[in-house]
Amino acid sequence: MNAKPPSDSSPTLAPAATDKTDSAGLVGGTRAPRPRLLVALSGGSEDAALVRAAHRLAEREGVSWRAIHVDKGSDDAQRRLVLEKDFAMVARLGGDTVSIQGQDRATELLHYADEHRIATLLVGRPRSSGWRFWRRTLAEQLMRQRGTFDLVVVAEARKRPRFRPRPTWQAVRLQEPLVAIASTLGALGIAWGLQAWLELANLSLVFLAAVLVSAALAGTRAAMLCAVLGFLTFNYFFTRPHFSLAMVEREQLLTVIFFLLVAVVVGQLAGSGRRRLIALRSSREQTQRLLAYSRALSVATDWDQVRDTGIASLERWLGAPVAFLNREEGNPGLVIQYTEPPGITLDAAALTAASWSWQHRQPSGLGTANLADADQGWRLLPLVEQDRVLGIVGLELGRRATPLGPDQEAMIEAQVSQLTMALERTRLVSELSTARLSEENERLRSALLSSVSHDLRTPLASIIGSASSLRDLSPQLSAMDKDELLDSILSESERLNRYIQNLLDMTRLGHGSLKIERDWISLDDLVAAALRRLGPSLDSVDIERDWPDDLPLLFVHPALIEQALVNVIDNAARFSPAGGRVGIQARHDSAGGQLEICVTDQGPGIAPEQREAVFDMFVTDSEGDRSRHGSGLGLAICRGMLGAHGGSIVAQLGPRGTGTTIIMHLPLPAADDGRRSDE
Amino acid sequence: MSKRSLVLIIDDEPQIRRFLRISLVSQGFGVIEAASGADGLARVKEEGPDLVLLDLGLPDMDGQTVLDALRAHSAVPVIVVSVREQEAEKVRALDNGANDYVTKPFGIQELLARVRSLLRYQGQANEDRTNLRYRYAGLVIDLAAHQVSLEGETVHLTPKEYAVLKRLVRHAGRVVTQSQLLREVWGPTHTHDSHYLRIVVSKLRHKLGDDPRTPHLLQTEAGVGYRLLAELDADATSRST
């Protein structure tokens, strides 16, 4: 069948499939989503600028891009949080992300770029590496090795105080010298007791153990202190001459110097091991906190719930008041929608900062680069999702006793970004359901329109047809024919009028503006009025009335119940065969305190599954203009009108298994009311 | 006319049946009526009418179903008379075997013209319709001679144009659906390429001297198909009027 031989297409495929060997990567463009641009992230302050630069470049070149992070296993919690944020930003800007393991960033990057035939690699230029001048920057290392890609070095944005990590040199805690002194004293005691049995060199091991203990208990600085103290103590107590820092024996001098060297190195190593352990623990705690946070947010189903959960959780973690501000319709400024604890207000300065943040989509207030006045106690963070501000989170950090550490700063960012995503999710969900609802409304509206147009057109067809016959065929028509056509025009016009009345009633029922004005009336009067209104359209059927004379009076809105009767009887007559019988029965159901009215016809009947549907306002598509029981709105209106009186209407199989019986129930007023009315 | 043509009205609206009956009888037709699809089908079998007017919205079954059942055993011409105005419904009815479609409400003259046209067509059904001569004003289309002339001058048509025109002439006065023309002229795989047909029809109008803005000879039934004005050869038309 296929006219083209299959071999036609295969040769063109072949080079593409084997182009792995083609190191120039010239044909790489023929395959769609292979990234051509790689950006190396480190979790440092320069990352944000890097990601933006990569995004701009990729946009300009029209290529896809990827962010890469080389995980050396030594990143602290703060770097991890920054990276998490970076990756989220990359995803938002349309790139993808990858994390690889390795010890040397430059080597790993080079290897990866070669393997994936990357055309351009972006790296950051960190601010001056300071005292570690001998270290080469990543860019320098990459330049020394031969890569097949272009290397772009991106400078860090100059003014980003918020993202600059604080120096890791922390205040000396009292614990550190105490541990160092205690362990040195302990070592002195042990060494003193053992000196009779051990050589001098071996005694130094005791002090080395003290350094390790200090490192494990209190970190690098304690270990360093302990090493120096150990060196001095050892020197003072154990080297000859005893109880003097002076040394005479070269051998002992060497031992002491070696001890100091080893102690410093071991202390450093043990201290950094401890630091890593602590970092790992805190990173795990933060991860767990974030996980719990995102879990709490994901359980919340709507916007308000997400907002309240997010704010409450932030407040618990932060220990300071948190507020959520947003725009509301009909209000020019920002409105405080939720606070934790409740009832918190923002001062004028904070509100100004909030508006600024909304407009500029940037954080402001305490601890930021914007509007951070001295008396400003709040920090305002905008929740930005794709150029749209979803709200502003205000943190009253001024109430906190201690300033935020870098880990906490990063944690706030992470939580706020999770809150943003969760809010965006609920916003999308609610937008979707609104769209679905309006689609449903649209469908109902068009069903109503088509059913109404059918109902209006059917009598119009008779009217136009009869009138045009009268005009065009007049010479050939007998006087009787003309009379008949005129009758047709009249009765169909009346029918049209009834439809329009029904439509109007329906609208009023729908709007709830139909006012029930009750009055006492007998069923005889109601039925007589209905039959009179139906007039000639009942000519083809026999109407049989059957009810006792002593029926109680009804206390209803006469016009509405009359309309209901008109609709039911009209329906029955239209579905009756010519000469058929339409029965109207009524009885007083004294036990139920209601009046039961039955209208039966000898028509084709209604299928059991349709008996409820005929009271629906709309016709389903599959029914079209066939199910005229339902399309006329008539029965739907009956149900509405009886319902307004506390009554009911149902359709049943007619007597003797043929036709249809429509049964209406109308509640009667309480017995004494009825009697009084008879007087 | 040798005998009165008998028209069957299948419609559940008594008022519609009434004015149709009065009008058709006044024009010399015999009329029988049915208020339901089942009754209508029975009447077709029993009385063998010459033409059926069929409403689609019947209480017992859909008019399209009636059409299907009717076509299973009868070739009687059917005009669908319905309030359904969507093109899809018209096309469906025509594809189901209806010969024409009139949307309610309608003026009586329109319906009578369609009825006459169909009965005339029926009168020729027994003859060889492949050798028709179509004449309208100065236009003569002779299917037997394979010739088209306008004011005595031969009109040159491409094979596709002639193929479309031939089908319209054979069904003169009635709608030929777009998909039918595409299927028969271009083949079953092209039933949705209606732009082919648009181009050919506009060329035909141009060549046959029809005004493309207000086409008279070759009328478009929007979304449904095309209809060639029903003025057949004088010999043919004289019989039914």
From TrEMBL, chain A:
Q: Quick one: a GO cellular component term? A: plasma membrane
Report what the protein is called.
histidine kinase
TM segments?
Answer: 178-198, 204-232, 253-271
Main localization (coarse): membrane
What GO MF annotations does this protein's record show?
ATP binding; phosphorelay sensor kinase activity
Enumerate the SUPFAM superfamilies for this protein: Adenine nucleotide alpha hydrolases-like, ATPase domain of HSP90 chaperone/DNA topoisomerase II/histidine kinase, GAF domain-like, Homodimeric domain of signal transducing histidine kinase
Q: Per UniProt, which keywords does this protein have?
A: ATP-binding, Kinase, Membrane, Nucleotide-binding, Phosphoprotein, Transferase, Transmembrane, Transmembrane helix, Two-component regulatory system
In the Enzyme Commission scheme, what number(s) does this protein have? 2.7.13.3
UniProtKB/TrEMBL annotation, chain B:
- A Gene Ontology biological process term: positive regulation of DNA-templated transcription
| Chief location category | cytoplasm
Q: Which GO terms describe its cellular component?
A: cytosol; protein-DNA complex
Q: Where is the Response regulatory domain?
A: 6-119
**Is Transcription regulation among the key words of this record?**
yes
Q: What ranges are recorded for DNA binding?
A: 131-230
Q: Which residues carry this modification: 4-aspartylphosphate?
A: D55
Where in the cell is the protein located?
Answer: Cytoplasm
Enumerate the spans annotated as OmpR/PhoB-type domain: 131-230
Write down the SUPFAM superfamilies for this protein, in alphabetical order: CheY-like
The entry lists its GO molecular-function terms as: cis-regulatory region sequence-specific DNA binding; identical protein binding; phosphorelay response regulator activity
Keywords in alphabetical order, please.
Answer: Cytoplasm, DNA-binding, Phosphoprotein, Transcription, Transcription regulation, Two-component regulatory system
The record's annotation in InterPro entries points to: CheY-like_superfamily (IPR011006), OmpR/PhoB-type_DNA-bd (IPR001867), Sig_transdc_resp-reg_receiver (IPR001789), WalR-like (IPR039420), WH-like_DNA-bd_sf (IPR036388)
Pfam families to which the protein is assigned, alphabetical: Response_reg, Trans_reg_C
Task: Note the PROSITE patterns from the entry.
Answer: OMPR_PHOB, RESPONSE_REGULATORY
Name used for this protein in its record:
Two-component system, OmpR family, KDP operon response regulator KdpE
